[in-house]
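Recall that a protein's primary structure is simply its ordered list of amino acids. Everything else, from secondary elements to tertiary packing, is in principle encoded there. The following example makes that idea concrete.
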Amino acid sequence: MFQRVFFVLLIFGAFPGILSTQTSVRIGKTTDAQEDGARRRSEIARLNERGAYFLEQEPLDSALHFFRMAEAKLAGIPPTGPGAETQDQDQYAQTYDHLSLAFQKLQRLEKAMQYANLSMDLAISRYGENNPVTCRNYCRIGDLFFTAEEYLYSLDYYQKAAYVLEKQAPPGTETAEGKAFLGELYYRLAETYSRLSRPLSEVEPLYQKSLTLMEDESKRVSIQIGQSLKTALGYMREGDPASALETFTRADSLWKSHQTAFGKDKSFQLLRAEIIRMRGYYWKWQSQYEKTLSCYKEYVRITDSLGISVRECWVLKVLMEIGEIYGQRVRTSESNADSSVYFTQKALHKVCRTFDTYDITRVPEPDDVISHPYTYGILKQLARYHQLRAFAFGDEAEKIIALKTGLSLLELADKLHSRYLEEAAVLRGGRLGSLIAGSMFTFDAGMGFSYMLLQLEPGPDLLETGFYYLQRLKAQQIRLAHLKEEAQKLENLPDSVLEKERMLLSAIQNFENRVHQARKDADAAAVETWQYDSLFHAKRAYRSLIAGLSADYPGYWKDRFASKPATLQEVRQALKAEEVLVEYSVDKSTIRAFIIARDAAPQYIELISMEPEKVEEAFRIADQLNQLLGNSIMQRESSRANFVEWSHQLYEYFIQPLEAQLAGKKKLIIIGDGPTHVIPFGVLLPTDEVKSFTELDYLIRKYEIAYHYSSTLFVAGRKATSPPRSGIYAFAPVYDRQELAAAPGSIREYSADSALRAFDEDGNYAPLPESERETSSIIGLFDQQGGASNRLALRQNASESSLKAALGAPYRIVHIAGHSYADLENPGFSGIACAGLEAGDEDGTLHAGEINLLRIKADLVTLSSCESGYGKPEDNDGLLGLNRAFVYAGAPNVVFSLWKVYDKVSASLMVDFYTHILEEQSYSESLRAAKLRVLADPATASPHFWAAYMLIGG
């Protein structure tokens, strides 16, 4: 798109001396080695020149052939170090840059990134990390991330380049060449901020900085037009259509006024296409769809005529939106139905190398599909419009064909997902959240298509297919962490490699914590130092390590992304006779459940079918119930009546339709989805009769209840072999001394967000005197059983480093009694408050991001801390709270609380819980027994006191 027009200008232009082949004048006799070197350099230069010619003319295979030959000629010549010569280093840089460009044009971004990184490493070794010369490389890598629509990663590199240039050449001291370079860099930053939906107040100053520094008239015009389009988009967001349209018109007039001067330039023509596209977007916003279609089709015509690749323009998005507009009219005419499929199919062709058929029964081969962020969406949309067309105008046979074609398209998306994860892990330095989020829609559609086809052609295979997609959908981040552990064992990776990875990840987390703290403290200098030097360097080192792992240990790399969801039969075999597993699946209009038991065929039930209002009501009630339970002991009759009403309504939604399948079972294993993760199922009531709390017929009276994130993780946990573990580590900072209770200022800000009441009026952690009695009593129980491996960490001994060490030690149980807090905006910075600051890198808080990096050996982690299950909902991955972090780090069983419970009740419940464990009852049996004991006492029978505690695993 037009925003990328300048993004390759710096590759060879900003610092031409870097890439020019320099000759060395020597006095004296020329040796044979010198003559050989001169011949070799001359041949490499010719190969690069030939490749560059073909790169421009775009027989890309020929270009790549010559660049590869140049690379082969360089083999064996040291690019860095004592033996390296300047001419050779220049040729290495030129060859790497050429290869990166060629692979980018071939739409193989992972290879383009590989060579861009090699070029950057060479530049850093020659000039240093904070040298203006190296900024060209940072921009190149930023451009590749921008092309891949990985805007946060591109921002890292653009900001690093800006930081170096501004530091080395303050405003007013730049050379003409440096000013142009910095101007284009500010343009990049403005475009990246815009893609990240940053406010105009942040974007506009960057455009203005760019214009101030830019002297080339064509670039200035392009920036002005781009700025106008972004301003118009801002007016649309603010609901001001008149100003938006006026600004679009001004951009159009500006382009036309310069058409004579620049109209033949390809990038300037593409700029015209972008103006037309944005007008189409405006008309879509105004619901004037015919005008939208006219603009969008003209955009496609222009970009096709210019031969612009899908990485350099918005053609895929535009084609999908054309298909979407026709898709909204599917039921009005068969022509609209055909058009919805046609334009989406055309988008599919553009992400394929050779596939170009419109035969609706054919699907491209996985190897024919390029890696692109829109591929998931295209495949899902095409499957959907096949289905809509058939269901609107076809007979039953055509419906079945359309659904089977849809499933084939979604199966292709599933196959591509593992490949994309492998590629993206190298490209993104192991951070895969956005790619996983993009896959959710296809897996969700796979479930839906399976269930629709199940109605037309009932059979166990389709039930299995639906369950397969449900497993693919859920808890991908946690599953990937477990796959990584399994792959390490299979491939026997050297301990030194694993330790280096662990240290780099820990360093990244530490620097991110410091940047976060510096921002909270409004310390701009500290932010710059930690973010642009320390954190940038650590991330670069980690990406380099990841790239090496993928190349040196291909088996390990493939295994760590080869997800194999559990089958229905595997789940049945993992269950005991007295257990039943219920896995919920939720979307905006439907709530489904799989019911699986060892002694019965699996069943699938739609609890709410295609009723979005009912789904919304169910989760509104769940939220109301949770708020009531967490904030009140419900002494008033009205509160008690509300509790009974809402608990019964949730029972009717989630349990009553399953009563026949649950009959005769002793234990429920609940696999939640979306808002169901925060429903304490134990409080649900089969009737709406209002009674005293001790008399109500709660679900917990009938069943042990445990929870998990997916059936696949549940099966993996049951199959896992337990290493030798013994004893308990009990952790309680108590917070009754000033040096232990002081909370960092940035943490105090979270108390309002997370509803924690952990701070006193001075902003210190409130003392928890009962936590000392609680942990001492628990240690006493275990000491009575004998064994020397029990340890109590109180006050200053309850440090962050001590807790980390205990989590990695072979204790059977780690019990944490203290304050925790949730950062809903940045869940990785949620944490457990430890005993004050320590020397070194520990800041006195064990953050969720740090927990993720641990390798927990304990069989059970109990979070007796306040609201340790509170967190940010994440689609299909549970709540991003502390409990999830411990599961991610390998804890097979975690007890946590959804809200804060009075210290004395909590301490009593926990002591009782461990008493039953020591009597060799299971964790779920023990927790149920402890809850029932609290429930039996009229003083503590309110569910507020006992329902907060939940068990993952069991």
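The radius of gyration is 31 Å. The CA atoms of residues 48 and 182 lie 28 Å apart.
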